[in-house]
Write a sequence for this structure.
């Protein structure tokens, strides 16, 4: 993975936040300021933020089927409509936009001419459930989760919710099928570990990534007490290997590679996903409810090499 570090001007702080320290760590060691800044609002349900090296952020608004583009000058415009009710977004090594589309039950790629190409919508001849989130490895492989969100029980063709790998040659492989609801997904900086959240079991699991891209040694990395109301959603990793997990109503959690809680931040709205961005990749953008927020971090985020 390629990790960046540099600067983006800060705006007016309008999002209320609360930083919570924990044993073995302090929020001020993670964030320059743990008060979320609200950048835009008025959406229905924001998700899937991804930073473009061209200097803008894309994110999904799932119910109306739109992808928006936010720029540092504060402008936010529709980038793509309809989006297939896209959720997670990412860029491939060629800079093309990848999208997990709930509505079309597929993983798609937006070509340079503006057409959307289906990369995966079936496994073993059966339709995928509802691709949710994805992570791109530096070898070009795409890993994604497939819970049944938005799919009626009678429309499901698979009896499980899987985690998949789409190889650069287009071969789709099922990596794990023992999740109740696989959701957020992210690689460690060295790409030797894959993290996957299970929102039904309220836990984040870690897997070793083998040389052939498959997974081994699955284990629970992080699962707070039930009282925390933790529901893991989208997640990203910084250059130190720390995992930033959006936990819906429970806020944003920052967890070490050993599963220790380093910080926790509450927002006005429950965060559903996050992405590092800005010229130095030290802005953490968060999609939460009807809004888009950001936090300034002390460590840069990691993004796939191109």
């Amino acid at each position: 993975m390629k990790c960046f570090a540099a600067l983006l001007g800060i705006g007016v702080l309008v999002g209320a936040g609360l930083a919570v320290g924990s044993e073995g760590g302090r929020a001020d060691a993670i964030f320059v300021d743990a008060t979320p800044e609200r950048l835009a609002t008025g959406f229905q349900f924001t998700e899937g933020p991804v930073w473009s090296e061209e200097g803008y952020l894309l994110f999904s608004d799932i119910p109306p089927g739109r992808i928006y583009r936010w720029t540092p000058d504060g402008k936010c415009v529709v980038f793509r409509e309809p989006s297939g009710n896209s959720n997670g977004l990412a860029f491939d090594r060629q800079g093309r936009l990848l999208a997990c589309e709930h509505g079309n039950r597929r993983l798609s790629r937006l070509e340079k001419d503006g057409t959307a190409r289906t990369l995966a919508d079936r496994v073993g001849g059966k339709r995928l459930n509802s691709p949710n989130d994805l992570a791109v490895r530096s070898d070009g492989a795409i890993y994604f989760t497939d819970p049944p969100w938005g799919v009626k029980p009678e429309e499901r063709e698979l009896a499980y919710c899987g985690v998949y790998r789409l190889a650069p040659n287009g071969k789709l492989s099922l990596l794990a099928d023992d999740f109740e609801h696989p959701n957020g997904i992210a690689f460690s900086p060295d790409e030797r570990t894959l993290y996957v959240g299970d929102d039904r079991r309220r836990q984040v699991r870690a897997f070793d990534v083998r040389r052939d891209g498959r997974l081994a040694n699955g284990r629970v990395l992080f699962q707070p007490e039930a009282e925390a109301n933790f529901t893991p959603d989208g997640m990203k990793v910084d250059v130190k290997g720390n995992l930033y997990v959006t936990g819906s109503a429970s806020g944003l959690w920052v967890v070490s590679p050993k599963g220790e809680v380093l910080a926790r931040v509450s927002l006005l709205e429950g965060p559903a996903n996050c992405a590092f961005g800005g010229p130095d990749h030290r802005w953490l953008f968060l999609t939460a409810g009807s809004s888009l927020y950001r936090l300034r971090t002390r460590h840069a985020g990691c993004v796939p090499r191109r």
User: Anything to note?
Assistant: Residues 1-24 have pLDDT under 50 and may be disordered. The first strand starts at residue 2 and ends at 3.
